[in-house]
Amino acid sequence: RANFLTYGANQPGWPSRFRGRARDEKDCHLLGTFDLSGIPPAPRGVPQIEVTFDLDANGILNVSAEEKGTGKRNHITITNDKGRLSKDEIERMVNDASKYEQADKMQRERVEAKNGLENYAYSMKNTVSDTNVSGKLEESDRSALNSAIDAALEWLNSNQEASKEEYEHRQKELESTCNPIMTKMYQSMGGGAGGMPGGMPDMSGMGGGAGPAAGASSGPKVEEVD
């Protein structure tokens, strides 16, 4: 069982594909695909999709996906005779996966750093847009936050193939602007949670380096490694 979040604002559906074990999609074998549609408009990362995998004794794989807010569901059954690979094909794919393991690891870390920056920036953007938060920020602080977030997202949009180190550096730069302002706001309210309607927003994914952000606006790694 795994949980995923949408990667775009007002995303109406969630495409799902199921492949083999290699990290690069192009090196895997397609097992099946289905779409979960009818997701209501919502900010990026708000709809939650729970995916369940069930493999029975006969080698039949049942995969289901449910959007938790609406209960929308879809599923697929993959039998062991659909798209079955030959023994030679399996051996070749295993050998290729071992051969390129280090390159796969470096690419995975680069994508994780990219997604970490993107998730953090959108998480902060959603937080600053929350009326419970924006109304308690000084105008200069709100302007500084929005400028830093917009600059980070603009840079990210223009640098899709940057290095892991560049993504990590950009996230640390953004954190150095956002974290002190948010901390100051919470402290001015007597610690945060008690001074805001509904309590303090989830900040668990808003710091601690360039790994993928957690919390309400985090999610699966939104870019596939291809």
Automatic annotation (TrEMBL):
Gene3D superfamilies xrefs: 1.20.1270.10, Substrate Binding Domain Of DNAk, Chain A, domain 1
Residues that span the membrane, as ranges: none
MF-aspect GO terms: ATP binding; ATP-dependent protein folding chaperone
Xref: InterPro entries: HSP70_C_sf, HSP70_peptide-bd_sf, Hsp_70_fam
Region (Disordered): 189-226
Key words, A-Z: ATP-binding, Nucleotide-binding, Stress response
Pfam family, one: HSP70
Keyword check for DNA damage: no
Annotated family: Belongs to the heat shock protein 70 family.
Name of this chain's protein: Heat-shock protein hsp70
Record organism: Leishmania braziliensis
